[in-house]
């Protein structure tokens, strides 16, 4: 099998070396997507796009520059290289810049062992049918008053990476998704809610009717909300918002933030941050994972990484540059685009499931809040101070009760992590995933 984008990347990296670059790497990203949306049975959007971008990074000593183009004409490669070299010569040196050194590079890698490509490619008619069935199911739920739209999409993307260090890697990924946003009630009492599912393979995608009906039920359940009282009480995060806590964690253990000293976890390596038993894992090699990839943005083979083991922080998210700043070795977490340098990032990040069901997790809560929607964000990455708007349901005597809205949940992330409990209901739906989470002692600002 031939891989034209990889051949182009290899050729451009070699031309850069021959024209005077001490080192160079090239990334080529291509994508094709088809998406439709309907509202009240009428097609609102039908869009197909195809893009290909090429990015070249060159090094002259510790000076570097990046140029990108969407024109894949080899006749223009020499001019692209000359432009990059000229830019690098006038930019300041960076002592931590450079390609990977003394780490296991992928060499040449073009096989797909992660099952990331689905041969099923729906056409516009099939996607429209899926979107309409999704919306019909939502509108059939008693209490749903209107539709905010249903959508169905398909996409295929590919990444080719080549460097003067001997990297020549290629992989592709497909994606299918369906979503619904439903409205219930009338006028100022109207409520909106949603459901969504996305998978690599069409065979794993939930039926649109299931997604639509759930979105409709979610919206109806939110009708006539009240405000909780102001006070301190347990907060339980539904899985669809609990993964936001993973986002705060990944930002705090990002190697760039640690090197700059701008993280509230900067002194916590090797220390207990979560209760015993809590595990946080980043796995770029999960089969059919939404964010899986066989290698990172610098050509390093990705491996599963237990970032938190038994509550103890084990590792930072590192690319080569941040690792050098910290005197460490990259752990293959580099992400990049065609016009920017690599930076650390997570892949399939998740809290490992606990041993207790969601029902048992809330059974002893006399009064608390169950969070299903988070709005805004006032999170300070340096101090860990946390404050977000929310809506959801009251928990009374261990059971979900009346809907609530227009309140704020606040605390400090370090304290919150230390009290965090996880349920057993982990499913992989978003790329960053969590089971139901309970955190006691949260400050609730309501009425």
What is the topological layout?
Layout: H1 4-18, E1 23-39, E2 42-60, E3 63-69, H2 77-90, E4 108-109, H3 124-139, E5 144-163, E6 168-184, E7 191-199, H4 208-221, E8 231-237, H5 239-252, H6 255-260, E9 280-282, E10 305-309, E11 312-313, H7 320-325, E12 334-335, E13 343-344, E14 349-351, H8 358-362, E15 367-375, E16 385-396, E17 399-412, H9 413-418, E18 420-422, E19 432-433, E20 437-445
Parallel strand pairs: 4-6, 8-15, 14-19
Antiparallel strand pairs: 1-2, 1-5, 2-3, 5-6, 6-7, 8-20, 9-10, 9-14, 10-11, 12-13, 15-16, 16-17, 17-20, 18-20
Write up this protein:
The chain is α+β, with helices and mostly antiparallel strands. The protein has 2 domains: 4-220, PmbA/TldD fold; 225-245 and 354-445, no CATH class. It has 9 helices and 20 strands. The strands form 4 sheets. Strands 1, 2, 3, 4, 5, 6 and 7 form a 7-stranded mixed beta sheet that branches. Strand 6 (168-184) and strand 7 (191-199) form a beta hairpin. Helix 3 runs parallel beside helix 4. The termini are far apart. The model has no long low-confidence stretch (mean pLDDT 96).
Task: Provide the CATH superfamily of the largest domain.
Answer: PmbA/TldD superfamily
Main sheet specs:
7 strands, mixed
CATH architecture of the largest domain: 2-Layer Sandwich
Helix and strand sequence: HEEEHEHEEEHEHHEEEHEEEHEEEHEEE
Instruction: Tell how many strands the DSSP assignment holds.
Output: 20
N→C terminal distance: 64 Å
Mean of residue pLDDT values:
96
């Amino acid at each position: 099998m031939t891989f034209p984008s990889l051949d182009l990347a290899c050729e451009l990296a070699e031309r850069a070396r021959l024209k005077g670059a001490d080192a160079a790497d090239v990334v080529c990203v291509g994508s094709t997507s088809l998406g439709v949306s309907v509202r009240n049975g009428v097609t609102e959007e039908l869009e197909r796009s195809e893009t290909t971008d090429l990015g070249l990074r060159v090094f002259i000593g510790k000076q570097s520059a990046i140029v990108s183009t969407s024109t894949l004409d080899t006749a223009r490669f020499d001019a692209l290289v000359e432009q990059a070299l000229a830019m690098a010569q006038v930019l300041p040196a960076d002592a931590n810049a450079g390609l990977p050194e003394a780490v296991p590079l992928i060499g040449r890698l073009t096989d797909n062992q992660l099952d990331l490509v689905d041969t099923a490619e729906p056409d516009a008619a099939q996607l429209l049918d899926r979107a309409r069935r999704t919306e019909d199911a939502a509108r059939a739920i008693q209490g749903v008053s209107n539709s905010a739209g249903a959508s169905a999409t398909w996409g295929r993307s590919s990444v080719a990476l080549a460097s003067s260090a001997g990297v020549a890697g290629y992989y592709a990924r497909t994606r299918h998704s369906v979503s619904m946003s439903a409205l219930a009630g009338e006028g100022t009492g109207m409520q909106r809610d949603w459901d969504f599912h996305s998978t690599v393979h069409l065979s794993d995608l939930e039926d649109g009717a299931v997604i639509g009906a759930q979105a409709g039920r979610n919206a109806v359940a939110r009708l006539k909300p009240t405000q909780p009282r102001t006070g301190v009480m347990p907060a339980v995060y539904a899985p669809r918002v609990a993964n936001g806590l993973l986002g705060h964690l990944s930002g705090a253990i990002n190697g760039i933030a640690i090197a700059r000293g701008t993280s509230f976890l900067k002194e916590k390596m090797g220390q207990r941050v979560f209760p015993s038993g809590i595990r946080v894992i980043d796995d770029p090699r999960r089969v059919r994972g939404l964010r899986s990839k066989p290698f990172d943005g610098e050509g390093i083979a990705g491996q599963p990484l237990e970032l938190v083991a038994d509550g103890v922080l084990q590792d930072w998210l590192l690319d080569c540059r941040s690792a050098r700043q910290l005197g460490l070795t990259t752990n293959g977490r580099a992400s990049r685009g065609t016009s920017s340098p690599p930076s650390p990032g997570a892949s399939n990040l998740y809290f490992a499931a606990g041993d207790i069901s969601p029902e048992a997790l809330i059974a002893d809560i006399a009064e608390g809040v169950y969070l299903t929607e988070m709005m805004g964000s006032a999170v300070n990455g340096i101090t860990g101070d946390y404050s977000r708007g929310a809506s959801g349901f009251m928990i009374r005597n261990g059971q979900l009760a009346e809907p609530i809205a227009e309140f704020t949940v606040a605390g400090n992330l370090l304290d919150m992590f230390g009290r965090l409990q996880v349920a057993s209901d982990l499913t992989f739906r978003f790329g960053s995933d969590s089971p139901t989470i309970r955190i006691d002692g949260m400050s609730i600002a309501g009425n």
